[in-house]
Design brief:
With about 190 residues, the protein is mainly α. The chain is about 75% helix and about 0% strand. The protein has helices spanning about 5-25, 30-45, 55-75, 85-100, 105-125, 130-140, 145-150, 155-180. The protein is globular and about 55 Å long.
């Protein structure tokens, strides 16, 4: 299947943001995410003829991105996979926004931001395979079947990875809440109240 330069440019414009968001979520580094997406589109251009149309073009592109991400992980110098760079970028951006306004926002925003950071920290602890299914399901909104197709694995594997990942995230969040209460940062919940 040959594709014109114009059509390929449209393909990039149509899917770049979504692939970039997924790559940034997985690797936590803006620069690395940009490189991964660029490599994904280069590989797609070279192998567009292998696209059989059995899945959506996005699912096919995501599969390429995932392979590029796995190679990136192997090349990375044995360090722990981190979303810290993404958290730091967002904190800096939030700080800049606060400096530009007279009022930083209601206290609920601080609590919500803290919760988002706790979830990101919990996701950081997941393996690449488990992080991938979480990204596809909850960031990209893919169905289990689409995830299985994108990852080229059985549906049961997808379901078990999501189940395990959610258990781990829940456990991490429970530990985080317990630590916050122990440090006096959060009031313990009273029984029967939510």
């Amino acid at each position: 299947m040959a594709v014109s330069k114009k059509r390929f440019r449209e393909l990039v414009e149509e899917h770049y943001d979504r692939l970039f968001r997924a790559a940034r979520f997985m690797c936590g580094d803006v620069s690395a995410a940009e490189d991964l997406v660029q490599e994904t589109f280069l590989a797609a251009a070279e192998s567009i003829g292998s696209f059989k149309g059995r899945s959506s073009i996005y699912t096919w592109l995501y599969g390429i991105l995932l392979n590029k991400f796995r190679r990136w992980l192997r090349r990375k110098s044995g360090g722990a996979l981190s979303l810290q760079a993404m958290v730091e970028d967002e904190e800096r951006e939030r700080g800049e926004e606060v400096l530009e306004t007279d009022y930083p926002g209601p206290p609920e925003n601080a609590e919500r931001n803290e919760t988002v950071e706790l979830v990101r920290d919990a996701i950081q602890e997941l393996s690449a395979d488990h992080r991938s299914v979480v990204t596809l399901r909850y960031v990209e909104g893919m169905s289990y079947e689409e995830i299985a197709e994108a990852l080229d694995c059985p549906l049961g594997t997808v379901k078990s990875r999501i189940h395990y990942a959610l258990q781990r995230i829940g456990k991490q969040l429970g530990q985080s809440e317990g630590l916050a209460e122990a440090r006096g940062l959060k009031r313990p919940r009273r029984p029967g109240l939510r």
